[in-house]
Write a structure and sequence with these properties.
Layout lengths: L1 H22 L2 E9 L10 E5 L3 E4 L5 E7 L1 E8 L6 E7 L3 E6 L24 E6 H5 L7 H4 L6 E5 L8 E5 L7 E5 L2 E2 L20 E8 L13 E7 L7 E9 L3 E9 L7 E12 L8 E13 L3 E15 L7 H6 L12 E16 L4 E16 L1 E7 L11 E2 L5 E25 L3 E23 L10 E24 L2 E18 L9 E17 L4 E12 L3 H6 L6 E13 L3 E22 L5 E23 L2 E15 L2 E4 L2 E4 L3 E2 L6 E9 L5 E10 L2 E2 L9 E2 L2 E13 L6 E9 L7 E10 L6 E9 L4 E9 L1
Parallel strand pairs: 1-7, 11-14
Antiparallel strand pairs: 1-4, 2-3, 2-5, 5-6, 8-13, 9-10, 11-12, 13-14, 15-16, 15-45, 16-17, 17-18, 18-19, 19-20, 20-21, 21-24, 22-24, 23-24, 24-25, 25-26, 26-27, 27-28, 28-29, 29-30, 30-31, 31-32, 32-33, 33-36, 33-37, 34-35, 37-38, 38-41, 39-40, 41-42, 42-45, 43-44
């Protein structure tokens, strides 16, 4: 009897278990995402709520999800298209098609299509979205926010990531990275550099960023020799919104941001803006940064037209920390600042005005016109002790002697730069099922006045006055480029990309340098830059690509100041890549070979304003392997990992020491580590909370091109910890976002940048090496609170 009862109980439990399993069986939801023309969209995001489970479409626009029976809300999104949501009662395996329609409020399709690439292009690139930017946007500059992208290294003068910040891509410095904002060139026309300190908190107005490594596609402005960085500013908001963001952290670092948007008024107009203030005392003593910035845009949109008028800019004041520390000072106190004059500061104002008109003519044709005017003006103030009076045009008189016994005095100077920059862009895009063609032209005109004032001296000359100028030079640069690029299918699975660009540059300047040396330049350059590539779709999850691109670029102003025999440089860039994407893994792998002729390579030394000196070298190359992986371990745990292995060499490097030239053979290119790795472990323990552990390793670097171990930087490994929690609200606020960031979590003392150069005495054969280092902050934190309305 007992056994019968037991058997009945077991049978009942099996029936109950089978019933529960039947009611909770796993079903398959599959489907396709297309555009309005039924063309599959690769990379569209499908999110299942409330589980926040999701996936993305493959090359054919297909997706597949495993779900239990139940009622779900499916959200489908894709950049440039309106996000759609659909309620779904899943009771059986189901297949569904989602059709997305172009979102006229997003500029990606027309505005930056001339300088950006699509997912299947034979170009090596990384995309950064607004959501990714927001996670760590607590006041640090854009270069620091890009630190964990493949092949990127970053640094800052003050050590805390605020103020004068820098980045390198594949070892190439930021003067070789072409930067555009809404397709408008941002690099300084003369120095070719980018000064993010002039655009404080600009990340808060960025909708998306694309970093193309290598030559990339044709772009506006100076040629890309290491990479190109394309920034798209805020898109039009459908609904009214506002936010107040405040953050505070170590070294009295703080950021205050106010943003607003009216949303669409009368379904056509929008007004949006931002005001920001960023301040930091800096890790280095007194290396403070004070930034004020703004962003304002007015937009009009209808079915076929999008017009945007933007103005943005800022004012910066930073205390001098350009020259770092000597090795002795670094050992003594790595936070000390050798400068003692209380106003040894850099001061600059910059305002940008842009107008963009995007017009869709029909389903095949679209055009964009972009206009820009930039006004920049500023100076740095510098105290000079025992400075030779011969450098100041008779304004001051001697009160002593310098190191060499020349008549000298103490004084304070202000070297000024006053410049204007005009740009006009036009692009036309034709697209059908068989081919896409984008053609365009860009013209820029730059004028700049360089001059220096003496604002104080121990003794002025009798006929001199305060603010008399001791040097002056003017400069004009015109840059005109035309391009046309096409992509089309050769066969069903093989796609070709062809891109040709002509670039025509004139540069003239005359007058004196800050050292009162004559500077007379009248140069013209005509460059032809072809690019071509192939992408082969192996299957729905794999494709491979190969490309060749040629770039040419003119010297910058500093190169001419350092020597009149400087010549243009050219680059042949070869790329071979493989992309894999499925539900659990996205993998981008590529090999690059960048072969230079007459590369203008950094020597390791600095000029009088802290910029690296450069010289032509005949033969040099960069050869590397890049691997970038995004791994979905589970719906709550993901891993982002990238690694770059490279060899960066100069062939037959000629070393000039004390007037004696010697071929020292093949050497390593300065500031080019052979190994760079970065990874992020992302975990969501509960909904709306994300925890990330980020790590970065940068191998040994040489400060010069001579392979000198004494002037090399030791490799370093650092980690950051990032936490973001979003509290959803029903009243007053839409949400409150709490953000925390611990930089250099394990408190490493490291140096990521430096300089070295030979200083020669008057006595022949007497020379010594001068070295400097830029210490970066040890463990520090930033905390942020954002109120979204």
């Amino acid at each position: 009897m007992f056994l019968v009862k037991k058997a009945k109980r077991v049978a009942f439990l099996w029936v109950l278990f089978a019933t529960l399993m039947a009611n909770a069986q796993t079903l398959t939801l599959s489907g396709t995402v297309t555009d309005s023309n039924l063309k599959p969209l690769e990379g569209a995001n499908i999110t299942v709520k409330p589980q926040n489970q999701g996936t993305s479409t493959n090359f054919n626009g297909n997706f597949k999800l495993k779900l239990n029976q139940g009622v779900y809300v499916i959200e489908v999104s894709y950049v440039g298209f309106k996000t759609i949501t659909q309620r779904l009662n899943l009771v059986n395996n189901q297949q569904i098609t989602f059709q997305l329609h172009t979102d006229k409020t997003v500029l990606d399709e027309v505005l930056v299509s001339a300088v950006r690439v699509e997912k299947d292009a034979p170009v090596t690139y990384s995309n950064v979205t607004k959501k990714q930017i927001e996670k760590r946007n607590l006041g640090q500059d854009i270069p620091i926010l890009l630190n964990y992208l493949p092949s990127v290294t970053t640094s800052s003068d003050a050590g805390a990531g605020v103020g004068y910040t820098y980045y390198r891509v594949r070892g190439s410095d930021d003067s070789r990275v072409n930067v555009t904002i809404n397709g408008i060139p941002y690099n300084d026309s003369e120095s070719q550099g980018t000064y993010w300190v002039d655009l404080g908190d600009f990340a808060s107005s960025a909708e998306s960023i694309q970093l193309q490594r290598g030559v990339g596609t044709s772009t506006n402005g100076s040629g890309a020799f290491g990479a190109s960085l394309n920034i798209l500013t805020d898109a039009i908001a459908e609904n009214p919104n506002a936010e107040i963001a405040n953050s505070y952290g170590s070294y009295n670092t703080r950021k205050h941001t106010v943003k607003f948007s009216t949303g669409k008024l009368n379904d056509h107009f929008e007004l949006a803006g931002r005001l920001s203030k960023v301040y930091s005392d800096g890790y280095v003593d007194r290396a403070y940064t004070d930034l004020k910035s703004y962003f304002l845009q007015a937009s009009y949109v209808d079915k076929n037209t999008l017009i945007k008028a933007l103005t943005f800019g800022g004012k910066e004041k930073t205390y001098q920390s350009w020259y770092g520390l000597s090795s002795e000072e670094l050992k003594e106190n790595r936070r000390q600042n050798p400068y003692t004059y209380d106003n040894e500061t850099d001061n600059y104002w910059q305002d940008h005005y842009q107008l963009h008109w995007n017009q869709k003519i029909n389903n095949q044709w679209a055009t964009n016109v972009g206009l820009n005017y930039t006004k920049g003006k500023g100076y740095y103030e510098q105290y000079k002790k025992d400075s030779p009076v011969s450098n100041y045009n008779g304004i001051v008189e001697a009160t002593g002697e310098d190191w060499y016994g020349n008549p000298a005095t103490d004084l304070i100077v202000r070297p000024w730069l006053d410049n204007d920059f005009y740009v006009a862009n036009f692009n036309a895009k034709y697209k059908n099922k068989a081919i896409e063609v984008i053609s365009g032209a860009s013209y820029s005109h730059y004028t700049g006045n360089h001059f220096g004032e003496v604002i104080w001296a121990k003794k002025f000359a009798d006929d001199a006055n305060i603010r008399d100028r001791y040097y002056f030079s003017d400069a004009t640069k015109n840059d005109f480029s035309v391009f046309s690029k096409a992509s089309f299918n050769i066969i069903n699975q093989l796609k070709a990309f062809i891109d040709v660009q002509g670039r025509f540059v004139t540069y003239t300047t005359q007058g004196l340098t800050s050292d009162r040396n004559n500077l007379s330049i009248d140069k013209s350059y005509n460059f032809f830059n072809p690019k071509l590539g192939l992408t082969y779709k192996v299957n729905t999850k794999n494709n491979i690509y190969v490309s060749y691109a040629r770039a040419n670029r003119e010297p910058n102003r500093n190169d001419f100041e350092n020597g009149n025999d400087v010549t243009p440089e050219s680059l042949n860039d070869f790329e071979l890549g493989w992309r894999l994407k499925n539900e659990l893994l996205q993998l981008n792998t590529n090999v690059y070979y960048m072969l230079y002729n007459n590369q203008l390579i950094q020597t390791g030394g600095l000029n009088d304003v802290g910029a690296y000196l450069r010289e032509n070298v005949k033969d040099s190359y960069r050869l590397g392997l890049e691997i970038d992986a995004n791994i979905v371990v589970s719906k709550r745990f993901t891993i982002n990992q990238n690694i770059t292995l490279s060899s960066n060499k100069i062939k037959n490097f000629i070393l000039d020491r004390d007037g004696i030239q010697k071929n020292i053979g093949t050497t390593n290119i300065a500031f080019s580590p052979n190994l760079i790795t970065a990874n992020a472990l992302n975990y969501m323990p509960i909904d709306n909370l994300q925890l990330s552990l980020l790590s970065k390793f940068v191998d040994k670097q040489y400060l010069s091109n001579t392979n000198t171990e004494a002037s090399s930087l030791t490799g370093y490994f650092i980690s950051d910890f990032n936490a973001v929690y979003t509290l959803k609200m029903n009243k007053i606020f839409d949400s409150i976002v709490f953000t925390g960031l611990v930089n250099n979590l394990f408190n490493r003392e490291y140096v990521d940048r430096g300089y070295t150069y030979l200083n020669t005495w008057d006595t022949p054969g007497k020379s010594f090496e001068v070295q400097g280092y830029y210490p970066q902050a040890t463990r520090n934190f930033l905390l942020g609170l954002t109120l979204k309305f």
